[in-house]
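A sample copied in:

***
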Amino acid sequence: MHGKCTKCKNIPVIYDVNVQLNQNATWYQWETINHKYSKTEGSVTTEKMTKKTVKAEKNGTINKLLQDFENDLKPFKKHYFNNIHQQEKYQHIINNLKKNEAVVICDFSENYETKLSEEIQSMHFGASKGQITLHTGMVYLHEMSQSFCTISHNNMHQPPAIWAHLLPVLKMIRDEFQVTIIHFFSDGPTSQYRQKNNFYLIDLFTQTMELEYVTWSFFESGHGKGVADGIGGSVKRALDRQVCFGKDIRDASDAYHILKACMKTVKVWLIEDKVINNIVSIIPNNITTLVGTMQIHQVITKGDGILYYRDISCFCSELKGVCSCFGLKTHCVRSITEIKDILQPVTSNLPDNEVSSPKITARTLDLPVEDVSSDITPATRLLNEVDTMGIASENLNLPFDADLDLIDVNLMPIHILPDPKSNSPEIIKTVAVLPDNTYKPYYPVPNSTKHDILSSKKEDKRVPKKITKSNATVPKKNIKFLTCSGCDCSILSKKAKCMACNHFFCDECVGGVLTIDYLCDKCLGDSD
């Protein structure tokens, strides 16, 4: 389909045409043309130039029509094949994940416009309303999936913002599910995901987060709609519904707290502006452009400064994506000095001819060395356990420090300790960190024991009895059926209602044809 096969790339198209090729014909064709228009500002009139897509009428011979069709057929074949192939690989990878693998599909939703439950008319015009950025997606794991939405008042959609939105999601799947291999899927706009700055950050954070390797696949142009867009629509509907209930959404913080309260199935994070700015500061200005970026549909990196890429995705090997299929090529996204600094001999399960994964050091990103003091309180020690990434620093200020984790209570790890008050191994004490830096103990109750929990509330974990036909109870009710006004029998199936007298008749009295505008025989006789 790409026109590279020596056997089939020159096969001609066979037409069943019984007319002369030099005969004139008329057809329509979509074209993008230059369009001039005049714009008047005050007393000055200027001419502007813009692009306009039109459905143009073409005239020519049938031979010219066939030539134009074949010229358009070549890129269409490639486009069609890429779309089918990328969708097949996407379905293949999410259905064959290992325990240490995850698939993340993400996309920016259209910015949400802030709304108030009551507004004056002038609020509708000008720049009175702000915009909120929503980055939505789905995480597919070995045995489950989790939808997510990250919110920010910063409207940047470039790579620094992409990774500021992705980092709390990656921390969650890495810490809670021990994922070491991540496969990304997204659409491929060159202003967002498919560009050199994003390639650099993919490689950088693969090294920083100590992942084995990362793949990023792009859907074919015009075919990137997926589950991420559906999650974005659900989030916006939920926000609009809360506005109808009387709540105001003035900024990203309001939207975050509203979604945390009303959407239980979607993980929500609030992204601070400083996180995006700090990632902007670590991107160098001399990143080498990858030639042919628009043709690339998959990139692979192991965090060693070298980017592997191919025209279409492949996950055929045991290490999905790490294969030489479809003409795998390499590209250096970092300088030689950086690569020499990060390359260290470490063991790896990747092929021997591949560059081994680097070992992360504090020197690589100039991370500060923490001074562990002896007067750490138990609360501080427990808070330190929340952040196990080991890469948050004052320089980067990435969104996985303890402060951010305290925003999302659902992400708090629980610490299970033996209960000294009980000899039963089934009774355990669980301690969780609350936003006010306090502990919250509670006692899960086994089937045979009951305990008071916190404010004298009781928890019952008995499995509900399965309802079957033998033990099902039917409530006693006096069931009354409609009576046919024609034959005085009970109407058990279809019925018709007379428009005039409002009496019901069975289908036999009606004659088997049930219509909405039915009139019974008595009413018809009265009308005559």
In short: The chain has a mean pLDDT of 76. Residues 495-527 form one domain.
